[in-house]
Design goal:
Blueprint: E1 2-6, H1 13-25, E2 29-34, H2 45-55, E3 62-67, H3 71-78, E4 82-87, H4 90-106, E5 111-116, H5 126-134, H6 145-154
Parallel strand pairs: 1-2, 1-4, 2-3, 4-5
Helix pairs in contact: 2-6
Length: 158
């Protein structure tokens, strides 16, 4: 079992790239959607969960679950032995390697696997998708249909 965690506000095609590739590598993948009490999100937790479930409905070995607190605690509860992290750039790597080191310190039995995103989705970030959508730009090539529908509900010009 592998965990792929994030706020996913919103889930982008870059996130989907990582989770779909992880689903080919592991028997079971849990997309762990963070409650994100530390920041204001565009979508509620329930909206983010529903969007992820709809976008990944064709991935039979992927489940979507909410979580709060330490990811390592969720890994232990779910019997996960791997944390999957997506990397777009060296900036992501610098942050993620530090997190992986701390997770290894907290739970040596859980490994972190890094997946580089495909070149076609490396430029996508949730922050940019939210901003472009809010300003009325076209984000249809950056997110899947269920997420686009949600964005259009928040930003009708998107």
């Amino acid at each position: 079992t592998a965990l792929y965690s994030g706020t996913f506000d919103p889930l982008t095609l870059g996130h989907e790239d990582v989770v779909r590739r992880a689903a080919r590598m592991f028997d079971r993948v849990i997309l762990a959607v963070a409650r994100a009490h530390h920041k204001k999100t565009l979508f509620s937790l329930d909206e983010r969960l529903a969007q992820a479930q709809a976008a990944l409905a064709d991935c039979t070995n992927v489940s979507v679950r909410p979580f709060e607190g330490l990811l390592i605690d969720l890994a232990r509860v779910q019997g996960a032995t791997v944390i999957v992290r997506g990397l777009r750039s060296h900036t992501d790597y610098d942050y993620e390697i530090q997190m992986a080191g701390m997770n290894m310190h907290l739970a040596p039995e859980v490994d972190t696997v890094f997946l580089h995103t495909r070149a076609s989705v490396q430029h996508i970030s949730s922050t940019l998708v939210r901003e472009i959508s809010q300003l009325g730009g076209d984000v249809s090539a950056l997110v899947s249909a269920p997420v686009l529908e949600g964005l259009r509900g928040k930003h009708p010009r998107a």
